[in-house]
Amino acid sequence: MAIFKEIAGLRHWRQALKGTLALVPTMGNLHAGHLALVRLAATRADHVLVSIYVNPLQFGPGEDFDRYPRNLGSDLQLLGEAGCQNVFAPDDNVMYPYGRQDLAIVLPPRSLSSVLCGRSRPGHFAGVSTVLSKLLHMVAPEVLVLGEKDYQQLRVVQRLLEDCNFAVQLLPAPIQREADGLAYSSRNQYLSTEERRIAPLLFQHLQELVRRSKESDADPALLAQATRASLELAGFVVEYLELRDGTSLQSLPRARPGARWFAAARLGRTRLIDNLAIDL
């Protein structure tokens, strides 16, 4: 396995590479959802590179940056078993050699980054846009693979690529779920045994919202209100539960083609997000 920790070695390898390259950016602590991205990437490019970097710019004050799980050894083993032989694992000195206090950053469109998760995580999507711009310049892939679980992030990145004229194809990957419907997430390991039992209710309620939204007299605001109450009764602290357009992320008064339900809720100390499209 080729493991790059410095930009010079990465670029030397990239310049000598024959064929196309797909990048799968991650923050490590890999799970089956990440490995599905790797397998999808391998169907669209001759080579796959996985980046592993816990980006501090994505974390706000009081968030879990310090305790975010870092398991490079097990990550490399999983990637090897999945057939990925190329990894970029830089540290902060490589990614931000002049520090983070006086840094050039990339600001995403407010219309996409100030809603949903952007309301409670100011600066998060600027951190995503900045680190991803750096990675794309370093790696120069033909294909970029991102999962749909972080759907707002996917839309922000899509606009970033379009607005900044990156020569890369964005390949969205469907949400990967455990057998009971819980979306795979590196933060799921924070859940206690009882919280893990409850957690799939978030997806189950989204499924019911999608079903009810297709009814002709469905009022999304009333549906969301009733669903929020049910989730909070089960132990969730709901941050948002909203019907929005899947492209613009603008709030919708009624379901229509391309609409999605978006949810974020805390269960204990774990923040869970999920989304589900309405197929009309």
Automatic annotation (TrEMBL):
Keywords: ATP-binding, Cytoplasm, Ligase, Nucleotide-binding, Pantothenate biosynthesis. The active site is at H34. SUPFAM superfamilies: Nucleotidylyl transferase. GO terms for molecular function: ATP binding; pantoate-beta-alanine ligase activity. ATP binds at residues 27-34, 147-150, 184-187. Its EC number is 6.3.2.1. GO terms for cellular component: cytosol. It is found in: Cytoplasm. It catalyses: (R)-pantoate + beta-alanine + ATP = (R)-pantothenate + AMP + diphosphate + H(+). Pathway: Cofactor biosynthesis; (R)-pantothenate biosynthesis; (R)-pantothenate from (R)-pantoate and beta-alanine: step 1/1. The keyword Protease does not apply. Beta-alanine binds at Q58. InterPro entries: Pantoate_ligase, Pantoate_ligase_C, Rossmann-like_a/b/a_fold. One of its GO terms (biological process) is pantothenate biosynthetic process. It is an enzyme of class 6 (ligase). The keyword ATP-binding applies. (R)-pantoate binds at Q58, Q153. It comes from the Bacteria. Its main location: cytoplasm. The reaction proceeds by a bi uni uni bi ping pong mechanism. NCBIfam families: panC. Homodimer. Catalyzes the condensation of pantoate with beta-alanine in an ATP-dependent reaction via a pantoyl-adenylate intermediate. Belongs to the pantothenate synthetase family. This is Pantothenate synthetase. It comes from Acidithiobacillus sulfuriphilus. The gene is panC.
